[in-house]
Amino acid sequence: MPNPILQVENLEKRYEDVHAVRGVSFSVEEGEVFGLLGPNGAGKTSTIEILEGLRVADGGRVSVCGFDPQKNPNELKREIGAALQSTSLPDKIRVSEALRLFASFYHRRRKSEDLLKRFGLEEKRNAFYSQLSGGQKQRLALAIALVNDPKVLFLDEPTAGLDPQVRREIYDIIEELRRDKKTIVLTTHYIEEAERLCDRVAIVDHGKVIAEGTPRELKQRSANTARVEVRLAKQAENGTLRSLEGVVDAREIDGVHVLHCQHTAPTIVSLVKHLEATGNELVSLEIATPSLEDVFIELTGRRLRD
User: Fold this and answer.
1) What 3-state DSSP class applies to 286?
2) Dihedral sign (CA 215, 221, 225, 229)
3) Where are the beta strands (DSSP E) in the chain?
4) CA separation (Å) from 120 to 104, 138, 150, 253?
5) What does the DSSP 8-state code read for residue 94?
6) Each residue of 248-288: pLDDT tens digit?
7) 3-state SS, residue 1
8) pLDDT averaged over every residue in the chain
């Protein structure tokens, strides 16, 4: 087996009294899209900025493309590309100028014309940065991240704050890079983003990796179960819904009872009988197949975006 193109072992990062990263470990193979999935404040950005050489780790070992980001920052920067959580360029720089500027930093570089075409920015080549929409700015950030044809591409929350249509456009671009076998490490707090784009995912919470695997493997933690979300006219007493037929796990989150059950029909019949017996009423009921959020709920007892 070849060595991973990226390896992280027992990574630690502190900011005074805040222990942001607590012994994070994972590896990424060449050509893989690897996602760090977790809520805001989980330690995802601190982790990825250490891998990019932008922050100094307080402990652990990191290797990216065979380089230690702290010991070999210049060598590392030639091999990686990055789109940060927020990209800000001068208002009066033109799109083509920005690409030429960043390309000039590298010996190995992509043609600006090719990147303009690939990212749908040909008609905006002479537009000022201030004239671009949010989606166009993000596409430009991705194009800039690829000017040196990097071996590893880091994307920190690549679709945060974008409307659904633009988000889908960015998804299409990342999926195209995935088909080209580009190695990508991305952070996200969007469940659908991780499930759609990533070959493997590490779920991060409070600075720790609490689960890792392919989206399919992680969802198999909830194998043979369905999720039933129930809103009631009156709150059920603690633990009563857990005793319903077929229920393997029950939690109350923000007024919604989330039930994981092996067979939905017996559970719903049991629920209706329970409500009739207790004088309660059903306000709404939704049934869904397990998702990565279900894994997160089962591991932490709360939703990903809490």
Assistant:
1) strand
2) negative
3) 6-15, 18-28, 33-37, 59-64, 80-83, 152-156, 183-188, 200-205, 208-213, 226-232, 247-253, 256-261, 282-288
4) 22, 12, 20, 42
5) B
6) 888 888 788 988 887 889 999 999 999 999 999 999 999 88
7) coil
8) 91
Task: State whether residue 234 is helix, strand or coil.
Answer: coil
DSSP 8-state assignment for residue 92: T
Hey, how many other C-beta atoms are within 10 angstroms of the C-beta on 56? 10
Backbone angles phi, psi at 299, to 5 degrees: -80, -30
Interatomic CA distance for residues 188 and 92, integer angstroms:
30
Residue among 135, 112, 110 nearest 122 (CA):
112
pLDDT, tens only, 15-36: 999 999 999 999 999 999 999 9
Predicted confidence at residue 222, as pLDDT, reads: 66
Quote the CA–CA distance of 27 and 29 in Å, as a whole number. 7
Own/partner pairs for 87-93, CB < 8 Å, 24+ apart?
Answer: 87/137, 87/138, 87/140, 87/141, 87/144, 89/129, 89/140, 90/129, 91/128, 91/129, 91/130, 92/128, 92/129, 92/130, 93/128, 93/129
CA atoms within 13 A on the CB side of 242: 7
- Distance (Å) of CA 263 to CA 25, 224, 246: 36, 8, 6
Strand pairing partners for 260?
227, 249
Residues in the chain: 306
Q: Assess contact for 203 and 38: CB atoms under 8 A.
A: yes
DSSP letter at 67?
B
Token pair listed for 22? 């607590």
Can you give the pTM of this predicted structure? 0.83
Tokens representing 81 are: 């590309």
